[in-house]
Amino acid sequence: MAQFYRPGQGPQQRKREAKPKPATIAAADVVGLDHFGRGVVRSAQGVKFVAGALPGEVIDYVESSKYEAELLAVQQSSPERQQPACEFYRQCGGCDLQHLNVAAQQQHKQQVVTELLHKFAGIDVTAQASLWQPTLSGSPWNYRRRARLAAHYDKSKRQLTLGFRARKSKTIVPISECATLALALNSLLAPLRACLAELKLVPFLGHVELLETTAEPLVVLRLTRSLAAADRARLVAFSEHHQVRIAWQDEQQVHLLDTGPLPQYATWQAKLQFNPGDFLQTHRDLAEAMVAQALQWLEPESGDTILELFAGSGHFTIPFARSGAQVTAIEGVPSMVRQLQHNAHLHGVAVTAACSNLAQPWAQSAAATLLQGPFNKVLLDPARAGAAQAVQELVRMQPAQILYISCAPDTLARDAATLVQGGYHLKQAQLVDMFPQTHHIEVMTLFERE
Questions:
Q1: Which residues, other chains included, contact 43 with Cβ-Cβ below 8 Å and sequence gap of 6+?
Q2: Burial of residue 68, with CB atoms counted within 10 A of its CB: 0-12 exposed, 13-18 middle, 19 or more buried
Q3: Could you say which of 346, 383, 402, 421 is the most buried, measured as most Cβ atoms within 10 Å of its Cβ?
Q4: pLDDT band (50, 70, 90) for residue 149
Q5: How many helices and strands in the chain, by DSSP H and E?
Q6: Is 407 among the residues known to form the active site?
Q7: CA 138, CA 184: separation in Å to the nearest integer?
Q8: Distance CA 272, CA 153 (A)
Q9: So what's the pLDDT on residue 13?
Q10: E strands, 77-131, where?
Q11: E-state strands within 316-441
Q12: What does the pLDDT average to over 267-288?
């Protein structure tokens, strides 16, 4: 068969126009870390971000994109470099800072928050040394009380792969243990994979979530079809043998395999029930320590009217209500509002709780009447998107104190700018090392009215 080419597109031209081979650079100096924990290299070719490289090092790298490069070798290493503890670290996408010692990780994260607050909110934290409180930290290993595992079943090989996604990839890295996962959950990985591989439902398995509770570990299976009787029997046997509770999630809700009470997690001096699928803070120790710090900063007492936004199932709410303060809790997920109300009832405290989309103007909210206040203290703990609408409403309300807890310092800095423009100043800041071995950052900030 004849093959036709457009002018200038013959085989020789195609060969000449092939993409050039990525450039390999030797003996490059690493001058810093970016906000994602990647080494920064500046050269005549521009800035490159190199995962795995540390400031002060001399490295060899190969360009992988316009701004990113792959580390090939470390010619001169940083004194802050350490040997990663996890055998899967180079492939797994769960951690990205195991090669940096924990003290340096914390210093870097605090510097990131400092830079972003100065850049976007004009807050010069370095000029006010007393603003930064000592980092709130716990165990840097085996601290995770929840994890979501990706699952893939190869029908031709009849093989189940269970693990974490590789870096910047949909590829699943099968793991036998995780250095950051709670020991009780680690011990389940191998037997759970073996059990699931034998079930008829395995081709319909989406992901698997593991949770450490105050009693038995909990396994949640995401399924795209109903649970058959034979599979149910095998899961019951697994549950009894390994002393673990099992739930499955379909398109509508999560179902516990047994008929026992809801699982519990610990907050400050209390245990709260939760539904599988509800949000839980990752680090078991720091989840409680954060509540203790919030109580210390806001000093809730009888006579205080406290507004809590993004309240979840009551992690901060119940301890604050037990202080005697009048707490109004707003959450965007209806099931978590119901669970918060139930937890308040179990602990014998009065809490006003309502469901509302806090990203919309509060005058349009179903909880508009409750949100009118007045409130003298506010606590908010939003997701990564931050709380742009909420802080605008708070500036209008002018409570005396606002405790903003953030897992995304960029959106915190954006919202802090709104608070500063509205007459607030930053009084306290504290890094919470909620995610050791990763670049992810948690921070508590206390704002007070001028």
A1: 25, 28
A2: middle
A3: 402
A4: very high
A5: 11, 22
A6: yes
A7: 18
A8: 36
A9: 56
A10: none
A11: 326-331, 351-355, 377-380, 401-406, 424-432
A12: 93
431: its two tokens: 């890094």
Return the pLDDT at 431.
Answer: 98
What's the chain's length in residues?
A: 450
For 112, counting Cβ atoms within 10 Å of its Cβ (0-12 exposed, 13-18 middle, 19+ buried), the class is: buried
Instruction: Give 400's strand partners.
Output: none
Angle between helices 409-421 and 102-121 (to 10 degrees): 40
* Long-range contact set of residues 43-52: C-beta below 8 Å, sequence gap at least 24: 51/96, 51/167, 52/99
Structure tokens at 120: 């976007």
Q: How far apart are the first and last CA of the chain?
A: 81
| Two tokens, residue 80 | 């802050």
Is 198 annotated as contributing to ligand binding? no
Task: Give the mean model confidence (pLDDT) for residues 422-450.
Answer: 97
- 381-to-208, 272, 311, 404, 438 alpha-carbon distances in Å: 26, 18, 7, 6, 20
pLDDT in the model for residue 252: 76
Torsions phi, psi of 131, nearest 5? -65, -45
Burial class (CB in 10 A: 0-12, 13-18, 19+), 60: middle
Helix (H, G, I), strand (E, B) or coil at 123: coil
Specify whether the CB–CB gap between 320 and 342 falls below 8 A: no
3-class DSSP state of 119:
helix
Please give the distance of CA 340 from its chain centroid, rounded to a whole number: 21
Count the helix, strand and coil residues of the chain and give each as a percent rounded to the nearest 5: 30, 30, 40
How would you classify the pairing of strands 205-211 and 218-223?
antiparallel
pLDDT at residue 70 in the model: 95
pLDDT at position 334 over 90: yes
User: Which residue is catalytic, options 92, 178, 195, 407?
Assistant: 407
Instruction: Specify the pairing of strand 24-33 against strand 39-43.
Output: antiparallel
What whole-number distance in Å separates Cα of residue 390 and Cα of residue 412?
Answer: 12
Does the annotation place 258 within a ligand binding site? no
Token look-up 């900063």 returns 297
Within 8 A by CB and 6+ apart from 305, the residues are 325, 326, 328, 373, 374, 375, 376, 377
DSSP-assigned states of every residue in 41-89:
EEETTEEEEETT--TT-EEEEEE-SSSEEEEEEEEE--TTB---S-TTT
163: which strand partners?
150, 174
Q: Is 393 annotated as contributing to ligand binding?
A: no
Q: Are 442 and 405 in contact (CB under 8 A)?
A: yes
The answer to whether the annotation marks 231 as part of a ligand binding site is: no
d(CA 123, CA 128): 9
